[in-house]
Amino acid sequence: xxxxxxxxxxxxxxxxxxxxxxxxxxxxxxxxxxxxxxxxxxxxxxxxxxxxxxxxxxxxxxxxxxxxxxxxxxxxxxxxxxxxxxxxxxxxxxxxxxxxxxxxxxxxxxxxxxxxxxxxxxxxxxxxxxxxxxxxxxxxxxxxxxxxxxxxxxxxxxxxxxxxxxxxxxxxxxxxxxxxxxxxxxxxxxxxxxxxxxxxxxxxxxxxxxxxxxxxxxxxxxxxxxxxxxxxxxxxxxxxxxxxxxxxxxxxxxxxxxxxxxxxxxxxxxxxxxxxxxxxxxxxxxxxxxxxxxxxxxxxxxxxxxxxxxxxxxxxxxxxxxxxxxxxxxxxxxxxxxxxxxxxxxxxxxxxxxxxxxxxxxxxxxxxxxxxxxxxxxxxxxxxxxxxxxxxxxxxxxxxxxxxxxxxxxxxxxxxxxxxxxxxxxxxxxxxxxxxxxxxxxxxxxxxxxxxxxxxxxxxxxxxxxxxxxxxxxxxxxxxxxxxxxxxxxxxxxxxxxxxxxxxxxxxxxxxxxxxxxxxxxxxxxxxxxxxxxxxxxxxxxxxxxxxxxxxxxxxxxxxxxxxxxxxxxxxxxxxxxxxxxxxxxxxxxxxxxxxxxxxxxxxxxxxxxxxxxxxxxxxxxxxxxxxxxxxxxxxxxxxxxxxxxxxxxxxxxxxxxxxxxxxxxxxxxxxxxxxxxxxxxxxxxxxxxxxxxxxxxxxxxxxxxxxxxxxxxxxxxxxxxxxxxxxxxxxxxxxxxxxxxxxxxxxxxxxxxxxxxxxxxxxxxxxxxxxxxxxxxxxxxxxxxxxxxxxxxxxxxxxxxxxxxxxxxxxxxxxxxxxxxxxxxxxxxxxxxxxxxxxxxxxxxxxxxxxxxxxxxxxxxxxxxxxxxxxxxxxxxxxxxxxxxxxxxxxxxxxxxxxxxxxxxxxxxxxxxxxxxxxxxxxxxxxxxxxxxxxxxxxxxxxxxxxxxxxxxxxxxxxxxxxxxxxxxxxxxxxxxxxxxxxxxxxxxxxxxxxxxxxxxxxxxxxxxxxxxxxxxxxxxxxxx
Length: 1026
Hints:
By secondary structure, the protein is an alpha/beta fold. Among the domains are: 260-283 and 301-432, Rossmann fold, CATH 3.40.50; 785-1015, Rossmann fold (3-Layer(aba) Sandwich). Helices cover 56% and strands 10% of the residues. The protein contains 31 helices and 18 strands. The strands form 4 sheets. It has a 5-stranded parallel sheet with strand order 6-7-8-4-9, with helices on both faces. 57% of the residues are buried.
């Protein structure tokens, strides 16, 4: 359903659809939404009851009475914990949304020096979730505890009654042994059903969330094709667009006609509805979805769009262009991609990874992507500020391209660039509109609830946080694992003791001793049964507690690593989410299956073999040999039959999360270009591959389980043969021989656990390796404590001599660079084409990247201090960075501005006054007066309730509020019309008077008479945003 415009905004839709489960938990991706019983669950208990009834009616009666109690109590426990389980799922969903939002806004947090503060918020959030979930699991696992207790008591009653009747001679030993062996098997299917129900709970939550999305009514289509025989242009009549909760409409009664071959430019101030009109023409904004749209729109079906904020799906540029070529063969798609790159002079970008592109390079790729559609036959070209992030040279390329296409396409251009608008055959000026009206695909926050934000997350900027880059905790919760192993081993030992003592009791009772001599064994049977159930409950809690601790610690360490990497961190939505959410979820889920079970199995198998060896060395040796052979066979079968299937399945889970997120982020572009069906097919193919991997893994598991069953049966037969021989020779009593024969039968669960752990181990190791790869990324090293110097305060001077710098593993970007910036003496304006090293220079100034040679110093006017003698924290404490892709968080205007200072500093009347001054200085004073709730007005996911220019100015206001000595501005006038841009620069010069300012820009009008201009060279490699 994402292939159509939805009621929710782009980012909130992405989070809801990519993470419909608790954090997209990989644990539930392979689970059915309802526990599906195998035929054994319905057939085995009745058949066993019939067999027991024929052989021993009393034992059958005991099992028949207790058997219905199991699902009854399980249902009661499930009903009691349903709300708590749903709340725990929503809490994990909030964590996923919160983490994803933080990853997207990492440049903002780093630029404001607030990234480390979020560590405390994440710690509190993860710990609160762990405690809440464990408290819920204590009750949820009671269903399995009830099952175990009832099953154990039933078996114990059968064993005791059989023993008593054997003592009185009213039953034969053969019948008693048959009853003892069959009674537990009647409960085994219910135990499997309970496990399946527990495994499917998250999947049921996922299905409910998916159904809620699917149940949302589809918006009404507005765009239609012109009737046959009419001109293939664009005809808009009476277009009116309004957004719920807003005042005046964004667009009111617009009539627009664009003839075939005509180039029309839409112009107007920020917030006048230009992007809204373009969204309607593209078919992305429909009536009944995010807005109320009326009027008629006629245009040809084939359209190519250059969005204002392009997103990519494929890994490389050429793959992205080939994907937008549609259903053509690979050779033709490659030719189209190469041709489009030549037209936009982007051939050097061909094999670049999309995640490494600068905003200007990404915009050039979006233009080439639209050209591919034009070459495929699109007759309408819609461009939304295609030069907002481009330098003058690249803007000239776009102008030349428009001239080249002139006359062959219906072209509608939205631009603030006067030179570009001058190329149009006709200009349509939209009147100024209410500045709070949202643009392209905007949605009021209340239209569709976002589960990730349904309950307030910890306040942004909360807490002081640990020292930047500090170790966040142990990589592995050893104590919790040790508790889980101890409880698991004790539970398995109790189960083995239950079987062995029951066998001893029955055989000893067949000798008809005095009943008092059996009382100790009777009590031991009951105690072992109850102990097994309670210890199993404790083991499950301990293992899940260890998994949650591991996930929380890993998540914090990943966040710390991303913060330390700064601008070099890979923040691509799909990839970042795959690491921080997907892989952490895999580690959490698989650690329960991979770490604890083999340790428990090793302890139990070794201990059982040792005890049997004490009873009879030959029998113990044979059992040990069979167990070793079984373990090797199970591992070998999984290695041969599985062939990495589990690893492949886990990789597919992570790839699916990444691909789904990236596809949803780019859904608008894919839908407009008619690529939604192929994108859906690609995701469906991933699902089918997951299904095939799961089937192969299930086959390997079945073979391994069969080997375990055969091995325990063979060990029991061998032990029985040895014991029988010893009994005949008078070297052993019959009850002890029964222990030798029955104890191996209780080793089935430890043996199958080894196979399950082996099946998931490779996937667990791969997820850990991917996480550790992020943790191992190189970061700018701080000087040794003995070499550190105190930071200058205030910073009044920044200077560099012969500076050379480049990203690790890539050629140097900056060569022999000299610069000087002084507070109060004009700005340092840095210009240069896209990819020339401007972002690299900002990273060096922030100490996120250390230069390879040369000197960089900060000074207070009296004492210069080399930056390589300062820590990253010291440098960044003096700097406020307003990045080009400044993220606006899904919160209120107040919460976004509060990020600029430590928590509490902007509270109260004085803080509110400072926020209002910053908004006024950033040119948003008029907007503030129109917001319905003032500073407490939500801005929507990604700031979608604001226009692109308004989001830019809100980011500038945050940087002003930070009140730092040095301010780094990255494209502060992007997406602003010339009058608004000039007013913003004038306001910034007044607000930043007396401070040291470094401004990166493509706009030559930003540089003033007193400013120093640093022009960087062309074709420098862009930083590798790993």
